User: Fold this.
Amino acid sequence: MTVFQAERPLLGKRILIGKPGLDGHDIGAKIIALTLRDAGAEVIYTGLRRSPDQIARVAVDEGVDALGLSILSGSHKELVNEVLARLRELDAADIKVFVGGTIPLEDQTELRELGVAGVYTSDMSLAEVVASLAKALS
Amino acid sequence: MKHGEFAERSAGLPPPRIGRESATGIEVPTSVGPGAVRDDQVGSPGEYPFTRGIFPDGYNGRMWTIRQYSGFGTAEESNERYKFLLAQGQTGLSVALDLPTQCGYDPTHPMARSEIGKVGVSLSNLSEAEILFRDLDLSRISTSFTINGTAAIIYAMYLAVADKQGVPRENLTGTIQNDILKEYVARGTWIFPVKPSMRLVADSILYSNAVSPRFNPISIAGAHVRDAGSTAAEEMAYTLANGLAYVDELRSRGGDVEKFAKRLSFFFYVHMDFFDEIAKFRAGRRLWAKLMKERYGVQDPKAQHFRFGVVCGGSSLIAPQPYNNVIRVAVETMAAVLGGAQSIFTCAFDEAFQIPTETSAELALRTQQIIAFESGIARTVDPLGGSYFLEQHTDRMEEAITTVMKEIEDYGGVVRAIEDGWIQMRLAERALERKIKADSGETVIVGQNHFRRADERMVIGDVFKLDATVAQRALEKFQRVLDTRDQVAVDRSLTRLSEAAGNDGENLMPYLVECCHAYATVGEIVSCLKKEWGEFQEPVSL
Assistant:
């Protein structure tokens, strides 16, 4: 099943989807990875249980435009903070970071203040996620 | 409320439809007559092939176990919570463990730091287990552990606690999930490669059968693949296929199927398609009995029995209009009862967006009690048995399950399909399909796609606050254990474990119990086994 094949609004973008920490719920990450690829992006997926450092390094090595972090364990603040810090250390603060998962409203605001470009939760449609990403990366 | 107040976000969706297909994709006729019932497949409750239940008297003989999932923070806090739940009338404990414990990391490991005590209790060594079960009589309570990658270690720890409390091991009742195969597909707490992991599962089952015969050493679970996106038929098919893989492994290690099959149990999600769910349980129960009898020649009916627990809720619960979830859980619980579940866990309505509060957790428990003791649906065993529609739907569900099982077998079996990432990919595609159908409004989700209020705001009630000092206290206690234990005994137990791990014919359980008694930590035990076996390499191609 596909939605975006005709339009491909993310054509030419490289996006890394990462699963930081120990949370093993990866179906959201995979749905997003498949969707972004369908929307034209070149997508890399880290697989489970990566440290913030590993994810930041892959993002830099692969020269991605955006990094999507999927976190459902409640540890989003700590993990996102660490990833952002590592990106800054690696002189890669220009990589836009997005977060998806079970993120309470107040934490969403906090994550944006830390520098996260967008927070996506399961009640959003895939079309909304792609449109938001396309806008942020244009 | 006027109709116009609804549905700003529903604009552009097709009108909500009842549909002609069930959620699992089975065609549902408008009307069914008596010709749809195949009497030989229906049978009587308590009789092969057990379509109508494994007991002739249903819930009159034994009420289902009301088992709520809980456990958070430190062992002390969880211990208090358990005492509260038991006082509220709960009949079994369910222990949730934090991710470091589930993945085999000690609290001091860099990967563990931000996760200590977050999604469950931290159980890093025997001293924590002693606190967790303090003043609880292990010979009188049934304890269920949601644990997989480190299940054999946690089971060893439970035996060690019983030993220390002076409770005979044969009195222990409870369950460890211990279903590693589905972890590779959906839940993600795998540690070792598939083959040594299968050995750990088999070793713990065979050991448990011998020393704690009333304990369920495995709960083969479809719940997680279902919640991730599979259909009801796929959920049952993957689970039965995994079950057969364990049976084969156990037999290859000298297990007697007539014996060990009596202690295999299963675990599923219940979602919203009422008759799909009831049919899924009836069809699964019948299929398992047939497989046991026809494929393995099992004669003892108890070893043909398909005993299962369920969770009601999960991904069928949503954040918008959260009180709607109370109704969803009630409908799902009725499906579980009409399907003949042996134990039921009801999710709290707020699980979709927060850790349940004491109020929402209590409401979930009361939902079960109302259905059990007010509604009357538990009085007669399989009260829907013989229904023209349900019997036909059960037959069609069985066909759908069998078709998926055949596809897995044709691929080369579950172990190969998992090692290659084939089942994982199938599941991801199915999950995407489910999401697209929800986005388009083809699947009606009240309050999320259809019937959404224009002024809808996510209502978040009481938010449970995890004590910020949980991690610090866990680390301090951990250090105290390292400082006070007999290091010589620890080293000796780990060396012996390492040697046994290298010898495929040896049962590892006695060595794991010895390690636990010596206060070796979960992280140390896992590191020791990783040196022998390596780690699972996740196939991540999409």
Residues 1-9, 460-464 of chain B have pLDDT under 50 and may be disordered. DSSP finds 22 helices and nine strands in chain B. The beta strands of chain B are 65-66, 93-95, 142-145, 173-176, 215-216, 218-221, 264-270, 307-312, 343-346. The two ends of chain B are 47 Å apart (CA to CA).
